[in-house]
User: Fold these one by one.
Assistant:
Number 1:
Amino acid sequence: MNKTYFMGIDTGTFESKGVIIDNECNVIATHAAAHGMENPKPNYFEHDADKVWWHDFCLISNALLQKSGLDPKDIRAIGASALGADCLPVDKDCNPLRKAILYGIDARATKEMEWLTEYYGEDQIKAWYGRPLCSSDVMPKILWIKNNEPEVYAKAHKFLTGSSFITAKLTGKFTVDRFLGLASFNPLYHSDGTPNPETCKPICRPDQLADVMNTVDIAGHVTAKAAKETGLAEGTPVIVGTDDSGAEAISTGVLQPGDMMLQFGSSIYMILCTDKLVNDDRIWREEFIVPGTFDVSAGTNAAGTLTRWYRDNIFTDCLKAEKETGVNAYSSMMEGIDKIPIGCDGLITLPYFAGERTPINDPLAKGMLFGLTLSHTRQHMYRSTLEAVGYSINQHFKIFEEDKVQINKIMAVGGGTKNPGWMQIVADITGKTIATAGVTIGASFGDAMMAAMGIHFFDSFADLAKKIKPGITYTPNMENHEKYKKYQKLFDELYLATKDLMHQL
């Protein structure tokens, strides 16, 4: 049987990754490119869509073809995902009119959220979202541009998110998938995916929205211009694509109710597949990528961004040593962590260094090191931060249990899974068995598999499930789990006790 190949490329907060797989979902080549994130003001987070998103896609696609030695015509289909949900106004030629306003980490549109809540009423907002408006919603971001940058707003041909932009640059077609579009751009679309003129009225024109399609539908084909820039063959099919978390969930085998993905990236993102919509003010819900299913999802603002902050500011010697010796700085930072007792000798971190999304939904929340004494070391501080992410994850698990949403398996993915000590801490705090997939490159792997579905090489998501190989399993130490309960309670109460003071700051 002749080999068939598919390409997937994902753009994240600090890194883009790409992969070529064959018809058995074996990885043929991988490539990654690091990039920065701009933080021009408190609560403002941006990417230059051309210099980051499209630059990385072109660089990676060319590198993958070179590494694999494949003829571009050997690539049968392409899938792209990107961090979501972002807000990027573009002109008719898909030229960005400003830097992209990033996903929920960007909380500039608080006044717009307040105005929209008053305009529509809390009951209507709750009916649409199942929760209050939050910084992950695109509607208030578009309104922010309308209110603050009227000249940009007036020129906007379309308001896109990350995956929409990349797919448009490849094909010339402005599309967004149902999973991302109907959730993040809610309520600007009807449930059938057509723009809703009534809800669009105070926000944008209906024609300024992308066309809604299914994730694995073919959005279009690589144009001659895109072929020159990416190295891909003109005419190659391109699927609509989705956000990074959705693609990453697919890559781990989250394909039926009870399956859950725990994504350890710059932030934590969770997707738990369900058989029904679940309304809860503290979390999100939407249709899932797999037809006929839904999900509850949640996202924190900091995980890998915290470990990066420690590396760049507290463990600078480890970063210097990495450059000199090649020994990974993050591995060096874990030295001695296992000798620090559970609870870090009475030190608790609140990981709200960039405000917080779920479950507290508070963009004004602040980071905190609580309980510091002269006996604490930087190892205590670092372990406390790793534990803090575990406590935050566990808060969500408790919410899922309260809502009677069944969890059958938990699959961890993302850069954080390279740290087995951290994975064990999270398993112990939650009391849950956590597994990784055999292929841990993440969303780009899911993109490539869904590209194969786009041209009907695979007939169903069930066929994909057969190709996903298991990785490492972390079983909780239940004795440690009991010890952590005390600190979990303190963590839960600490934010509530300091919330008003945070807001005063």
Number 2:
Amino acid sequence: MTETQDRTVRLGIIGLGAQGGMYAGLLQEGKVAGMSLGAVADIDPAKRELAAEKHPGVPVYEDYEAMLDSGDVDAIVTTVPHFLHAEITIAAIGKGIHALTEKPAGVYTKQVEEMNAFAAAHPETTFAIMFNQRTNPVYTDLKALIDSGELGKLRHTSWIITTWWRPQAYYDQSAWRATWGGEGGGVLVNQAPHQLDLWQWLAGTPKKVFAKLAFGFQRDIATEDEVNAVVDFGDGATGHFMTSTNDIIGTDRLEMLFDAGKIVVEGSKKVTITRLTKDERSLSDGMSAEDVGRLFRGMIDTSELFTTEEKDYESQWGHQHVAVLENFAAHVLDGTPLIADGAEGINGVRLASGMQLSAWTGREIDLVDYPAEEYLAELNARIEAEGQFPTRS
């Protein structure tokens, strides 16, 4: 086969849960250009039976290693519990099989660093991560605007993302969910990784974090179900991140303040961009006492100070995962630049685990000179206390 359109990447799905099942359905229906369903692997006999029923003719394996050795797949996606992402990715790349890891890249930075180093040593094999929100036009447009420098330097940003309401039955459906040994955390490792990635993708990687977390606050779980964190981006720029799983109403509001403007995103759909006529400090320095009086009396024409643009975006739900899968296939086939290189996954993992470590120790955590071994020791202490899962190394 010489033509690009005649070639496909045979994807192996490891873990046929909700996410893996969705990917299998998309591939079976031919909705992902350049990609086909190569095989399915799952340790659960019921899931294997389901795979055989829903996808006749597709090879089904009871463990991922057998799939990797089968010759049935060119690439894999890791739709499995978070602790396994790095292990499976390393195994796949070691056999020359391209890997798309699900978010988060891992639970603790040591395992993600090992995965990244292994992938870097095998550049001929594609390593990507499923940061599908990076395909959302809301955020791709904002990324371009911020990177253009039009709004100047970042001053402050805050993201309140509490649209993750989960009733108790959600946690009770699986013994590993919201445990330290089975999942490695709560809302920070399950629901919020996309926002953590987008936040640092847009604003830059934070250098320090101080956080207050509530563990089992409104749910009968061991891990965090509410988070309030303050971060330091350096050069005076700061940020606040708040998330939870106990707000049935929910809020999704991102604010980013710059020297020459402001961005507000509501519900990941409505965007308000305010552009100052000059940078804020120049406007301040140029105001006389008389101007201040007029300002306080509401007599200043605000168009002299700023203009406002509003944009409404259609929901992209259902298209984002397809976009990442197609991009992954295009990179394998033709070298198309990746939407998200797998190595970038460590930024969100470091930020999430830094928040947890800050809450456990009551101190600000340096994210540049990150205390990875201390975090792992604290995590293992909690895993041991649970008594259900093995500790990590």
Number 3:
Amino acid sequence: MAKDNSLVPLKMLLFSFHGANTMLISFLPLLLQYKGLSGKEIGWVLAVGPTVSIVAQPFWGYMSDKYQTVKRILMMCLIGLLISGSIFFQMTTLPLLIVLAGVFYFFTTPIGALSDSLSQRRADALNISFGTIRTWGSIGFATSSLLVGKLLDVIGIQYLIAPYLFMGGLALLVSFKLTDVKVDVDPIQLRDLRKLVKNSPFIIFLFLVLLITITHRANDSFIGIFITQLGGSEGLIGLAWFVGVASEAMVFAFAGFWFRKFHPLIFIIGAGTLYAIRWFLYAFIDNPMFVVLLQFMHGLTFGIFYLAAFQYVTRLIPRVLQSTGHLVFIAVFFGISGIVGSLGGGALIDTMGGNSLYFYMGCMALVGTILIIVYHLLPYGKEGKSNSPVERDENG
């Protein structure tokens, strides 16, 4: 019982933060559209977050490893989220939106990665499945997408700030009760970061997943606009996200039963194949309800892909660099991929429409999956022994 009680604040943090985050992913593009921005301009604003995350996530990850605390870094970021978010959501012109988005995302983007890193560490310490903890983020995302979608149908997309700050405030409150994790090694030094740069399997893997994660982030940014292009409403967008993230929650919740049966790369390849199939199906849809019905594949794609990739990266990086390594991975998964997905997706959906966007996404996911199969067959695809504590370079 003590074990369960110690995880309640962490599960509530995941629930509330991802509940807030669903509003950014599902409804922020619609708010920007309401403010008069074009698809290309929306892409520019959405690309700010991934761009900033490339610096913000490794920075906050390094600070977490250096001072051996995830809890205090999370609290700082959540305070920054509330202050900057209350200003960002009020902006109406493109230059101000871009500038304030930079400040807002500097604090916001590391929170999910830090909470996942803390969840992975707590799961390892308690000898339980990471997925059983992480599923609470999916539950929060699914619940919020459904309820906020219905709420915005009533009050209007222009009032998105109210439910967002409510969930962000709840996340800050529960963060005070988190159980931190101490690593029984010396604090990280700057020279230790060379261990990540020289970790060839880690670096190659990050490059290869880009082709798949770019398509995932493009979908995050534009599925709402795609549904409205097909004649759907904000409520239907919320329902689509609910179906998708509910399936994701199921995948995470039962990860302990299926995940250890095969090498993580096998699951990554399977999820990549399903990504390609999913996008090709979306490319030929002309009714928004079909998007909702096919959203169950979100769990079979993102749920499996993210869990397997996160676990694989954990095996590749040393314990003293866990937060840094995790946040570098997240910076690639959601950062670099988000920049390309937002800018490229915005241009494509403006000029060619949503169906063409999803066709090209299917082609990219297919190529990415083939490359990961090649990686798995080569020696680089075999995990090393770098998950032990870093051996210091005495020569500096």
